[in-house]
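Hi support team,

I submitted a single chain yesterday and got back a structure, but I'm not sure I'm reading the token output correctly. Could someone confirm the output below corresponds to the sequence I sent? I've pasted both exactly as they appear in my results page.

Thanks,
R.
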Amino acid sequence: MLYAHYSKGARVMFNRFKSFVLILLVSIGILAPLLAQPLIEKNPQEVAKLSIVSLAPNATETLYALGVGDLLVGRTDYCTYPEEALALPSIGTLYNPSLEKLVSLQPDLAISTAFVSDELLLALENAGIEVLTLNLQETFGRTYTLIREIAQRVNKVKEGELIILTMQNQVKDVVEKARTMEKKRVYFMVDFGSFDGTATGDTYISEMLGMVGAINIAQEATRWTYSKELLVANDPDLIVMSKRWGQTEEETLKEFSNTKPYSDLRATKEGNLVFVDSDMISRQGPRSAAALELLAQAVHGDDWL
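Hi R., thanks for writing in. Yes, this is the structure output for that exact sequence:
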């Protein structure tokens, strides 16, 4: 190498120069972003011929938001947004997808979440299908990680960062505005009847409630489960509802309002029951910032406008 032929003094000066350049790069913020990107963008030609099956609605939404929805060759029954996704063949439900149908689509990549069984993931790998697993539902902030990881894989890093920046700005505005609002004691209803499901304290939806200035009465509970006794005892100011599977909002509201002990709750008697788009709120992805604002509007009502 040419470097080996330099004199000792020249090599010392050369090393000092390298050190100076390194320090300069750090000082002006060029090196830091590079170090923050451990993954290298894929070759555009490699990504162009990539075919993907999405095993998660939020992955489907993210791919379309990144502008690469055309890479999708399959989806689940729950991948209903955007509307273009409905034209794709479905491999079944999140919890029981058809391996045979999935393999027949001949994807290069399957994107999954924590809801997909280890057995299915192993079968996909044995079939030579790459699997990108995103178990990121612990916090709202990890929504950005999900978008970044998908963006990296499909060579849309810049687009992903733009989506994230736009979301972060909207989230900042919502949180700042919510700080000026009166805090309400809220119950987020996921299901009711034989099983009372809610956004417990270990869920990212509970975090969202806190971000919009609500007090989650189920904050101390875990695993999406709450008891009727605690619901009655804590008697919330407001119940945020989502329609039950296969029902309209009117049908869910009627059943809830006429079933004990829900009919005895103060929020029910005073009509403080409000519906939200459960798909939008429950799917961590590019619509999560907009979902946060919708939740804020639901909690604060006309005061938010």
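A quick pointer for reading it: The domain at 44-160 is CATH 3.40.50.1980 (Rossmann fold). Let us know if anything else looks off.

Best,
Support desk
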